[in-house]
Every structure is written in C-alpha cells, then in structure tokens.
Amino acid sequence: MKNIHFILIISLFIAIFDSCSTDVDLYAEYKDVPIVYAMLNPKSDTNYVKITHAFCGTNDDFINANDVALIADSSNYPGKLDVRIVELKKAHGDLYEATGRVIVLDTITLHNKEAGTFYSPNQTFYYTTEPFNTGMNGGKYKYRLIVIKPDGDSLTAQTGMVGNEEFSILTGGVGFQMNTTNNVRKVTFKADGFASLYEVSFQFNYHEQKAGQGTKKKSVSRTFGTRTIDEYHKLEGTDNCYYLEYSENWLFNALAYAIGGDTIVNPNHPNVIRYIDDFVISISAASDELADYYIANQVQINSPLSLVTTYTNIEGGYGLFSSRTKIERVAKLSANTKRELYGMTSWGFKEH
Questions:
Q1: End-to-end CA distance of the chain
Q2: 10-33 burial, b if ≥16 CB within 10 A, otherwise e?
Q3: pTM for the full model?
Q4: Is the model's pLDDT at 207 over the cut of 80?
Q5: Could you give the CA distance from residue 55 to residue 210 in angstroms, rounded to a whole number?
Q6: Is the pLDDT of residue 346 over 70?
Q7: In angstroms, what CA-CA distances link 158 with 36, 139, 141, 292, 313?
Q8: Which ranges in the chain belong to alpha helices (H)?
Q9: How far apart are CA 24 and CA 17, in angstroms?
Q10: Helix, strand, coil tally for the chain in percent (to 5)
Q11: Fewest CB atoms less than 10 Å from the CB: which of 64, 183, 310, 317?
Q12: 3-state class of 250 per DSSP?
C-alpha cells in the first residue's frame, strides 16, 4: 500500500512562523497526474476502467477548480490510451505466473451521467466484455492493469480476483420469533482468499393479492453494513469460517413496519392475502485493495484534524484497481417461523 501524508493545518504554520512574507505559491509546476478507478466483477458481463488526470492552473492564470472540472479536456486524456489487463494464475506458494492471456480494453462513451461536480453528460470509459476467471479446486487468479500514457510512461496495478469457489454461504436455514428480544442466531460463511471486506444482507420476499388490484411482489430487507473480516466472529476450529449474529425478532419487526395498518379488516372477507416466496442471504466481498482504501478513508473521517492518508495501489498514479463480487443463497425459513406468520391472521399470510 502506498500512502501519501500531508498536514491539513500547514497553512496555519505558514501564517504563524513566516511573518516576513505573505506571498505563498499555491501552484507547483504542472505535472501529469493520472487517476485510475476500476472495480472488476467476475459476474458482470461488462467491466469498466475510468482513467482521467488531475488538473491545475498557474499563478498567472487563476482557476476555479469547480469551473474547470466541468470542462471535458481538463481531466480526460486526448485520444485513446493503450489499456490492457494481463491474467496471472497461481503457480505455487505466493508465486503467480502469466497465463499468456492479455485483455485489450476499448473505449465507450456513456451519455447519461447526471450533472454534478464533474463534466457531464458524456463520460469516456475503457471497457471489456471478456470474462475474468476466479479459479476452482484451489486455483486462484490475479489481474494486472497496464496503461501506456501519451508520453510513453506507464501505469500498473494488480488485484486478486474475488469469487473463488471457497467463498460460500454455509447457513442453510434461518429462524425468527415474534416475542423474543435478546435471542440471536448466526449466519456463517467461508471467506474468500482475496477478500477482507464484506457486507451481509437479508431479504424476505413475499407477494400479496388484493381484490381488484392483482398481485404485487413485496419484500423487507436488512443490510448489516460494511465490515472488515476482523469485525466478524471466527468459528472455532476453522481457518477461514466466520459468522454474524442477528436478532430473532428482526423479521416480525420489519414486517410490522412494512405492513402497518394494511391488514385484514374482516377475517371472513379478507381484503388482502399474502404468500411467502423465499428468504435470501446475500454476501458481498471486496478484495484487499478496496479494504485498504476503506480503512484509510475511515481514518480520515474519524480523525479529520490528524494526518490524512490517501490510499492508492496505482504505480505511477493515484486511484484504485480492485475487485468485488456478490453471492446469494436461498435459506430455508424454519417451520416455527412459518407457523407463527400463518398464526397472525391480521397479516393475511396463507400457505400456497
């Protein structure tokens, strides 16, 4: 990880200790500073890489950064850069060797960016529709980005590809109760060898029928927030299996809020009938590079007056080249949970 440190209160030091002069050179000599951002996803049919460069003015030509950011040429490189991704496969130990596969990226212009701080509506991206391998039976892949700039200088970055078969949800069933307040259960998963940042989510799907209104799909969901792997509990006796605890009363509390007063008025002539569809557990995982970026930003947010750490894994520039993916598993809803849902006649849940 490359870290760039600077002090937020440097201008205050100048004002206090340099009383002989009030002239401060705010602009350094221009230098091309590339900025790269990419989040490869092995499950996406198209992956994008955004490549721009920083901009600045001079003492003789003052600029307003907000105004200049709206000019396309201020941050976009002219023409088309040579951008390619080299595939590497694990050989043994920590050694990865090139497979000979090189993915050459093309350009595409997206025309629907909303107006904002940076130039819009047209944004140029580098993209590929080539698949990225995640490996199986212990095999793993890394990918190396190579960008050749107009002046001949190059940028490089590397990331492990998350989504190897070892990354899996172990929990096959979930259970909830209406009246419990302190009881918890566990969602367990096997971590990805390249990922150290995770987010677990629940989604309970159901559909409802109302007289004269047809059928509507509904759901209640919960996301447990982004956490580093160290913030999960490790299962005893395992190397890379972890768990997260959830409250047994979550589902009933969520449904009570979602349904509100929309219940059966007359049990003999219900105005709404609901049916259970499924319960989905989702876990998103991001590679170590994004975890380092996330931790660096958390340090900045939590300590705004301390040294600020800017993370980059781009050699020859700034930005982030990383990978992420998401897995899902339909979990079996316990018989007790279903029984209690069907027993709450005012909510109108019925068996199929």
A1: 54
A2: eeeeeeeeeeeeeeeeeeeeeeee
A3: 0.82
A4: yes
A5: 58
A6: yes
A7: 12, 17, 11, 14, 8
A8: 10-17, 65-68, 72-75, 250-259, 288-302, 335-343
A9: 13
A10: 15, 45, 40
A11: 64
A12: helix
Q: Are 162 and 192 in contact (CB under 8 A)?
A: yes
Whether residue 118 contacts residue 69, with contact meaning beta carbons closer than 8 Å, is answered with yes
**How far apart, in whole angstroms, are the C-alpha atoms of residue 143 and residue 313?**
13
What is the C-alpha separation between 37 and 276, in angstroms, rounded? 41
pLDDT at res. 203? 98
Type of residue found at 37: Y
Give the CA distances from residue 91 to residues 45, 88, 102, 138, 261, in Å, rounded to whole numbers and listed in that order: 27, 9, 18, 11, 61
pLDDT in tens, 43-61: 999 999 999 887 655 555 5
C-alpha closest to that of 109 among 137, 66, 76: 76
Asked whether the predicted pLDDT for residue 325 surpasses 50, the reply is: yes
Q: Which of 154-158, 295-299, 326-330 has the lowest average pLDDT?
A: 295-299
- State residue 65 phi and psi, 5-degree precision: -55, -40
On the CB side of 151, how many CA atoms lie within 13 Å of its CA? 7
Amino acid (one-letter) located at 302: N
C-alpha Rg value of the chain to the nearest Å = 26
Helix (H) or strand (E) holding 131: none
* Mean pLDDT value across residues 342-346: 88
Q: How far is CA 239 from CA 141, 234, 242, in A?
A: 21, 8, 9
Name the nearest CA neighbour of 36 among 118, 195, 149.
Answer: 149
Q: Which of 240, 294, 285, 286 is nearest to 1 (CA)?
A: 294
Distance (Å, whole) CA 82 – CA 50? 13
More confident residue, 110 or 336: 336
